[in-house]
Amino acid sequence: MTKTIMLSVFVFFITLANAQKVEFTEYDLDNGLHVILHQDNTAPVVITSVMYDVGGKDGPRDRTGFAHFFEHLLFEGTENIARGEFMKIIPANGGTFNANTSQDRTYYYDIFPSNKLELGLWLESERMLHPVIDEKGVETQNEVVKEEKRQRYDAPYGKLLEVIGENVFEAHPYKDTNIGEMEHLDAATLEEFSAYFDKYYGPNNAVLVVAGDIDKDETIKMVKDYFGEVKPRPEVVRDFPEEEPITETKKVTAYDANIQIPAVIAAYRLPGQATRDAFVLDMISAYLSGGKSSVLYKKLVDEQKQALQVQAVNLGQVDYSIFALFALPQGDVSLDTLLEEMDEEIAKIQNELISKRDYQKLLNQFENQFVSSNSSVAGIASSLATYYMLYDDVNLINNQLDLYQSITREEIRDVAKKYLSPNQRVEIEYLPKKDDN
Length: 437
Known about the structure:
This is Pitrilysin family protein. Residues 1-19 form the signal peptide. The chain is α+β, with helices and mostly antiparallel strands. 45% of the residues lie in helices and 19% in strands. The chain has 16 helices and eleven strands. Helix 4 (117-129) runs parallel beside helix 9 (216-227) and helix 10 packs across helix 16 (409-419). The longest helix has 18 residues, at 135-152.
């Protein structure tokens, strides 16, 4: 090993060791709002973010898509912020902002120069305290959501998750799309939107993260000043139906007018993302298709030239995760052939230990991902909120890498054997829509 390589390795592990420890302070306000503070004064940047415990799975099934709709609606304005001004104030003060919604949570965040911390806290408290929910705002955002659906869900393969969800789940609301049905939004009344906000957007159903160039004591005082007056709401009680285990292969054909090349999908319903097995399945998906040197890509795309694209994804969710194999055929290769080839690699994992070299490569990948995810104040804030809300363990930001490193090759084999058998999945032929003529 040359001195240059040795130095690079040394610097990498020093960086990893420093990145591995994220200091944070957490506490609750009297109204139940959970607060997490992370002080990092290396750059004059601060992020204020709020994650609400509400997502696509929440609400009546004849009113799907409300959480995603509110992701947009809560930028409309408040009693103290005129309509449309919310999104002007932030860039005018040197900031950026965004929001996103999953089946399990909704996340808003603002990034400002650190001397604008108070502004960020005020904006997020306004969103929580007294947003304006009226007919004009609902009509405006209804059109925005419809356009988003046209751009994303009606794009080629944009319905993949929709097709998987509606076939992997029969009872749990994960079976419905996160963006919801447009007719549900069209039919909803203003009273229904207001009731949804009142139920899910209280301080005791949220976590506030303030990270970056802050003074901790001053921030604690400002947080209390801006959020302390928000009244708590009744506790959200969820009682989702449980899914029966899949014990026989389910074969499905789905059609999509927006695709030209057929695809094959094999989807498994698995335990929620906070379980140890879910972390093992992360490693299995990375082993199978984590980059161009991965097992499936090398085999099906590079060497045998049977696939245009191949992927194994472990989609983590709170109640049930989804592990899915996906491939697009090259030329006249059949979908059955692609599935057989992917199953062959799954069987190898189930019956043989992956090589020590591949195992070390996996650990290196997860180390790199860890460093990358926590390399910015925005990444740290997102991780802190996510680990609190979805994993009930904020300190995963410091010990998640240890968790991955504790997973053995034998455990990878055993978990693959436990969950990834053909009789535990839905096999979907995803085809271009038939000609009606």
